[in-house]
Amino acid sequence: MGGWFSNPIFKNGDYPEVMKTTDPGQELGRGLPEFTESEKRRINGTYDFFGFNHYTTVLAYNLDSDSSISSFEADRGVASITDRSWPDSGSFWLKMTPFGFRRILNWLKEEYNNPPIYVTENGVSQREESDLNDTARIYYLRSYLNEALKAVQDKVDLRGYTVWTLMDNFEWATGFAERFGLHFVNYTDTSLPRIPKASAKFYASIVRCNGFPDPAAGPHPCLQQEGAEPTISPMSQEDVQFLGLTLGTTEAQTALYVLFALLLLGVCGVAFLSYKYCKRSKQKETQPGEQELNRISSF
Questions:
Q1: CA 234, CA 158: separation in Å to the nearest integer?
Q2: Are residue 226 and residue 259 in the same domain, yes or no?
Q3: Which of 93, 178, 181, 292 could be cross-linked to 168 through a Cys-Cys bond (beta carbons 3.0 to 4.6 Å apart)?
Q4: What's the predicted TM-score (pTM) here?
Q5: pLDDT at residue 278 above 90?
């Protein structure tokens, strides 16, 4: 995908040769427009920097498919898989693979003559996040930023980095289910409060220190400015009145469940007693008839 958009601008004004092939099973080349030599010269080099979004890495392998099959994988002749040992995230497509970050940055350096690079998106998602102590996200950020610093040591012209994202938001087809934010957004509250997670404090220290201070050098001044950790739950804990009692929202919810269970149990009990009562009444109604039959038989 990178070559598709980047080759014309950063390399030679045209698409990669591998994309233009029209070999059997490679239908993509037939759909690409062709640039004139004048257009190539006009397109090539029209950039200020390379904006790069990166989240994860996959393992790719050659895919030989039937030429009659039309699909994204068949057109590009490549399929991809992931390693089961790679840590999961809240998105099915996103595995935590920090090693790939340094590799792709170095590939961009070698492939496009080391352009200025700004990482415009990099982050990880979690689902059903209700704990502000998001250790998985801290692991992700620490690992990926460390690989980015290694890339800088490799002479990659990495100018900037932007985490995705500041706060939980609407994530395309998954809506609000996947949370990428450093700040928790309580969607059940109409005021939509933004509450910092532990990762917000961690990332703030990285920005303040412009990297990872060397522990061997002792406490760094930039770490002495850290703010207080989040002290409140991401979900609002307003008091509510329940049967004359003042309870927190969690306790009130539990009490409501208990009350509903007791009500359901009471309804079932009444239904059972009604059934037993009706059954016994029917038995009493049939007993006189049986006695009359017995008398007739004995006569």
A1: 35
A2: no
A3: 181
A4: 0.73
A5: no
Provide CB contacts within 8 A for 28, sequence distance 6+.
19, 75, 76
95 vs 88: CA distance, rounded Å: 5
Share of the chain above pLDDT 90, in %: 55
In this predicted model, which residue has the larger pLDDT, 231 or 100?
100
At residue 123, φ and ψ (nearest 5 deg) are -175, 180
What range defines the domain where residue 155 resides?
48-236
Active site residues: 121
- Report pLDDT for 87: 97
Determine, yes or no, domain membership for 80.
yes
- The answer to whether the CB of 96 falls within 8 A of the CB of 141 is no
Does residue 231 sit within a domain?
Answer: yes
What span, in angstroms and rounded, lies between the C-alpha atoms of 271 and 275?
A: 6
Instruction: Identify whether residues 221 and 252 lie together within a single domain.
Output: no
Same domain, yes or no: 164 and 112: yes
Q: What b/e readout covers 31-69, taking b as 16+ CB neighbours within 10 angstroms?
A: eeeebeeeeeeebbeeeeebebebbbbeeeeeeeeeeee
Out of 236, 252, 269, a domain closes at 236
